[in-house]
Amino acid sequence: MRPGPRRSLTHAEILAAAFELLEAKGFDAVSVRGVAGALGLTPTAMYTYYPNKQALLAGMVEQVFGRLAIATTAADASGSSAAEGVAGARARVLALATALRDLLVDRPGAVGLLLATPLDGPNATRVDEELLAAFTSGGLDLAAADRATHAVRVHVLGAVAFDAARAARAVEAAVQPEAPAAPSETLWDDLESFPLADRSRELDDDPVERFAWGVERLLDGLLVPAPDR
Amino acid sequence: MRPGPRRSLTHAEILAAAFELLEAKGFDAVSVRGVAGALGLTPTAMYTYYPNKQALLAGMVEQVFGRLAIATTAADASGSSAAEGVAGARARVLALATALRDLLVDRPGAVGLLLATPLDGPNATRVDEELLAAFTSGGLDLAAADRATHAVRVHVLGAVAFDAARAARAVEAAVQPEAPAAPSETLWDDLESFPLADRSRELDDDPVERFAWGVERLLDGLLVPAPDR
DNA sequence: ACCTGAACACCGTTCAAGT
DNA sequence: ACCTGAACACCGTTCAAGT
Fold first, then answer.
1. Which of A80-94, B42-56, B176-190, B192-206 shows the highest mean pLDDT?
2. Using the beta-carbon criterion (under 8 Å), do A128 and B194 form an inter-chain contact?
3. Which domains does chain B have, with CATH numbers?
4. Three-state secondary-structure class, residue B114
5. Residue A203 burial (CB < 10 Å; 0-12/13-18/19+)?
């Protein structure tokens, strides 16, 4: 097994190896060298498939959005979310947002993926198109639909980033349970009391419900209320 | 200049050097070695101040939230945003969100900072406290205020992440204007047409206005409409 | 076209040692 | 306590060379 054009890998195979690494060892493990190693390649061979690491990550993002498109069109075909008007628009956006969250939230480092790329591939654009269609069918003109789409995109991205970062830290803490969290940190010296924040910390809200609630409230502001609501 | 306990740096001096690096060369330049070098230290000396890189980044995040607290309390003292009721709550949240965006958006990589840390330092908690106070004064109970606070936090984080990532890529492209963006990418083969997405891409919305609009719409959903509105 | 091997300029972190 | 110097196990990327 030396030089020569032995076998030729497909992008799908490379991305599959990259996602395996992402799932198993987190975002930092998705390195050019790491993916190459998992495929039995030299790091430099990767550069015949992708011009740089960014392009590899962009390919992964596109694949995630591709799965999302499949998941939501399947749901559309068998569900009632293709309904017209504000209620239909609401249901379609909520379904898209939830599906996107489901795809990202338990993949450590998937957010790093999203931030590393422009989100302008065809599959990402397809999701935009679906959101824009939902909002225009909900009565918004294109300019408002564009802003609404961006608001949803941004909200979901932020929510997933938040939950994923928390989950990643939890995994990390479980692997290395050394520092017992030092109850009173000496790094910050000026202690204050935050009555509301302290009490809210004990609420322990369910992340899934909290996410859905946030998207619903955003939709309350983005879409005029449905007549039947 | 060799070993020995010559001078002792303060955390403030170290963080100042770190922020200089962040501003000048982006998030990737904020390395343990880089900051140490800027201070005339050996990388290993950094570990007497912070147990690891995470702690350094957490210190930077706390400082950003500290500036935010100062900026908004100053605005509160001289402005009308301390008004009561829904309108006052609305104004306070919008002011906080805008101030946070202003602090983060043109610092390349500041978002990486936020995602790298738990956002549980005292200054970050103070911002939470202010948001919770605004929402409870707007008529929400603590559980609802907690969810509303999280929704705002998530929305701002996502929006800043999005705009900052775009800006970072623009800077990068300006520094290295080699690849002419290849009008028809060969990486993605199945071309489709996205009429709405294509048209919306030409809108070229102002990011600042778009952000404010999004936060306002979110607030529309979070707070019941003011009587005078 | 696809791949290797060596190299360059970096990382975070640890360890033993100096003052 | 604060710091250095050497070292370990990594990065992304480039370049010359092989088939």
1. B42-56
2. yes
3. 11-51 (1.10.10.60), 70-174+204-222 (1.10.357.10)
4. helix
5. exposed
Spatial distance between the Cα atoms of A9 and B215, rounded to a whole number of angstroms: 46
Residue A24: CA count within 13 A, CB half-sphere: 11
CA distances from A145 to A134, A151, B86, B216 (A): 8, 10, 27, 15
Distance in Å from D3's C1' to B37's CA comes to 14
Distance D18 C1' – A41 CA (angstroms): 16
The C-alpha of A33 sits at a distance from chain B's nearest C-alpha, in angstroms, of 19
- What value does the mean pLDDT take over residues A166-183? 50
Contact B148 A220 (CB under 8 A): no
Predicted local distance difference test score (pLDDT) of residue B74: 66
Nucleotide nearest to B5 (CA to C1'): D2
Mutation pick from B218, B219, B224 vs chain A, by most beta carbons of A within 10 Å, is B218
Q: How far is B76 from chain A (nearest CA, A)?
A: 18
pTM here is 0.85
CB B172 within 8 A of CB A52: no
Which residues 43-72 on A are within 7 A of strand C at the CB atom?
43-45, 48-49
Residue B188 CA to residue B182 CA, distance in Å, equals 12
Q: Mean pLDDT throughout B179-196?
A: 53
- Shortest distance between the Cα of A40 and any Cα of chain B, in A, equals 23
Q: To the nearest 10°, report the CA torsion of B153, B154, B158, B164.
A: 30
CA B126 and chain centroid, separation: 15
| Residue in A146, A213, A220 closest to B203 by CB | A146
Measured from the Cβ of residue A33, the count of other Cβ atoms closer than 10 Å reads 12
Q: Is the CB of B199 under 7 A from strand D?
A: no
Read off the pLDDT of residues A86-124 as tens digits, 9 standing for 90 and up.
Answer: 999 999 999 999 999 988 887 766 777 887 787 888 899
Long-range pairs, A50-55, Cβ under 8 A, ≥24:
A51/B179, A54/A116, A54/A117, A55/B187
The lowest-confidence range among A97-111, A154-168, B66-80 is B66-80
Query: Which residues, in sequence order, are CB contacts of A74 under 8 Å at separation 6+?
Result: none
Q: How far is CA A114 from CA A193, A207, B142, B198, in A?
A: 36, 20, 33, 21
pLDDT of B126 > 80? The answer is yes
Q: Which of residues 21-40 of B touch strand D (CB under 7 A)?
A: 40
